[in-house]
Amino acid sequence: MRFSLWSFIVDQRSRQPPVLKVDLTGKTVVVVGANTGLGFEATKHFATMNPKRLILACRSQSKGQAAVDKLKAETGYAKAELWIVDLAEFESVKQFADKFERDGGRLDILVENAAVALFEYAATKDNWETSLQVNHLSTSLLAFLLLPAMIKTAQQHSTSPRLVVVSSDTHYWVKMDKNLSENPDVLKTLGSAEYCTEKNMKERYQVSKLFTVFFVRALNARIPSSTPLIVTAVNPGYCYSELRRVLSGFRAVMDWLMEKALAFTSEVGSRRIVWAALSHQNQPDKLRGEYVSSFDIQEVSDVVLSPEGIKAQDRSWDELVDILGKVDPRVNTIVDQYLSRDISV
């Protein structure tokens, strides 16, 4: 599928339906990046549906606590829990997963929303380019480490847990570099200081969201059809957001003008995230491995569907498992125990 500028404008100017609501009594919801923007607005919506547990996974203790207090003031929901996770540090992700293994219990909905958009190379403590680690590597690591809790929830409560990973329609704009699609070390290349030139960093956010789509499709292809776990990528649309707060100069001016003309509020964009997490209650399998936008299932980009894209998806999956398996050996165990090596899609 091609996504033109006109398609983008039409989508942004379309009337958006009200938020979908279901009864979440007895269920546990985790929202990553829940203290502001899309994450906070999605959390507010979930809070009105009476979940037993609602966990706000935030990087900052002070900002996270402020979000918990604001959530209570605006919705009356008093059971929200603040858990700390910093996706720029693998150790923080591992500690979050350890805590969930000890204290989390069931897990019905996991929304992975946290992301950054950077235009200059900056390395994390783990020596990866920051936006690649936050938007893709750590997001994937958290998904892997919480996978057993979601599958256990499905088995014990006869339900279909949802893993919702926030992607973007900007993945349509990426043209796959042939040198990358045929590179067995594509992630290591993307994360290196040498590759992160000023030119390449201009598209880093879009590329990271392309790899989000790759991850969702690759993971879904390896989840046995008998496992009632629904993995979905969602595009919330172009919204007012702190994501672009790093912009300056001409970029900042142009973004300000675009926001005034086309941007959704964060609340409106969050409705799409909630829809991905809650829609098709009677037929959840419809959302397996899908990319959803505008409250519907959409075809992914031509690059994703191309032979080069399929090759890049498979190679990046193998490399991702290898990288994260060295970060935390549990990843290899989880892949072997819960996922199939026979690709179904």
Automatic annotation (TrEMBL):
A GO MF term: oxidoreductase activity
UniProt-listed Gene3D superfamilies: NAD(P)-binding Rossmann-like Domain
Entry keyword Oxidoreductase: yes
InterPro entries: NAD(P)-bd_dom_sf (IPR036291), SDR_fam (IPR002347)
Keyword entries, A-Z: Oxidoreductase
Protein name per UniProt: NAD(P)-binding protein
Source species: Mycena albidolilacea
